[in-house]
Design brief:
By secondary structure, this protein is of the alpha/beta class. It is 45% helix and 18% strand. α2 links the parallel β1 and β2. The longest helix is centred in the first third of the chain and has 32 residues.
């Protein structure tokens, strides 16, 4: 009996060792065959918004690079929590990716941990928040907006996507820094927000540029100030928030590509290599600049450092503002 038990233990140990030794080889085989079917790129925001615009541009270029279709799947809800959580729970096989936006880690209990549950692939762009208005708003500069907000208080409506977007937290920080009581109205995404801003249903917005740049150029919206450290190439005549007299309010989102944790490293390296080539191309650089973003090329390790730094920065802002549930 003892010999049978010993033999069984030895067999199980040998099997475990075989599986362990085969795992790296299997991941290499997977990477060599990858992709053999359609890849889903999840955008955790509605179609037509700024994140969606960038996601579709990246999906098109990745399709060409990988020789397999990459399709955008919009999964909006709860800010970006629902789509982000879905990807965290997806099979780590390289066939479900996420266009991640700064702020996804800020809810108190989203059901995932960005640094534990995701494998970074690389950054795509930095995208500043732009304070913009309906032209009927009787304020053309940030100083005039602040004066109007102090005078009208809750009567002044400001549109943003919901928390945990930096648009929303930027608006809350604006309220705190200016001592105003503006009313924040949240939208599912920047597409619906832009439509309501053009229609005059809200008069002011903390928005991204991609869904609104055509309206700004045509005069149906007015850009007042940008949340980046320097002016944006797409709208060079619009001053920064700091230039406009409110230093310390810097609101910049970072867009990047991640996969579920456990995705084979050769697949991550392949995707990272292709993404760096895509973002470095003159065509994509121009598309991102035209859409109001600055191209950012990074390695997976550099992107993880960015996630750690930026999410930590905004957690500190939320704590200082005393916002509940975040």
């Amino acid at each position: 009996m003892a010999r049978v038990l010993l033999a069984a233990r030895l067999w199980r140990s040998a099997l475990a060792l075989t599986i362990l030794l085969a795992a790296p080889q299997w991941s290499v085989v997977m990477a060599a065959e990858y992709p053999s079917r359609v890849v889903s790129l999840v955008v955790a925001f509605p179609a037509g918004g700024g994140v969606d615009t960038v996601g579709r541009a990246i999906a098109q270029k990745l399709s060409d690079a990988l020789g397999q279709q990459v399709i955008v799947v919009n999964r909006p809800g709860a800010g970006s929590v629902i789509g982000t959580r879905d990807v965290a729970r997806a099979q780590p096989d390289g066939y479900t990716l996420l266009l991640l936006v700064t702020g996804a880690a800020l809810p108190a209990d989203p059901g995932y941990d960005l640094e534990r549950d995701f494998a970074p692939i690389g950054l795509i762009a930095s995208v500043p928040i732009v304070i913009m208005s309906n032209p009927a708003l009787p304020a053309k500069s940030l100083a005039e907006v602040i004066a109007l907000a102090r005078r009208d208080g809750e009567k002044l409506t400001v549109g943003t996507p919901p928390a945990p977007t930096l648009n929303y937290f930027g608006a809350e920080q604006f309220k705190a820094m200016t001592g105003t009581r503006i009313t924040i109205v949240t939208y599912k995404g920047t597409g619906p927000l832009t439509n309501d801003l053009v229609g005059g249903h809200v008069m002011l917005a903390f928005n991204t540029l991609p869904p609104a740049i055509g309206n700004i150029q045509s005069g149906t919206l007015r850009a007042i100030a940008v949340g980046s450290p320097s002016r944006m190439a797409a709208i060079p005549d619009v001053p920064t928030i700091a230039e406009s007299g409110l230093p310390g309010l810097e609101i910049v989102q970072y867009y990047g590509l991640v996969a579920p944790a456990g995705t084979p490293q050769p697949i991550i390296e392949r995707l990272s290599r292709e993404l760096r080539r895509i973002v470095s191309s003159e065509d994509m650089k121009q598309r991102l600049l035209d859409a109001g973003g600055d191209p950012v090329v990074s390695t997976p390790a550099e992107y993880m450092q960015n996630i750690h730094r930026e999410e930590g920065k905004w957690r500190a802002v939320i704590k200082k503002l005393g916002l509940v549930n975040y």
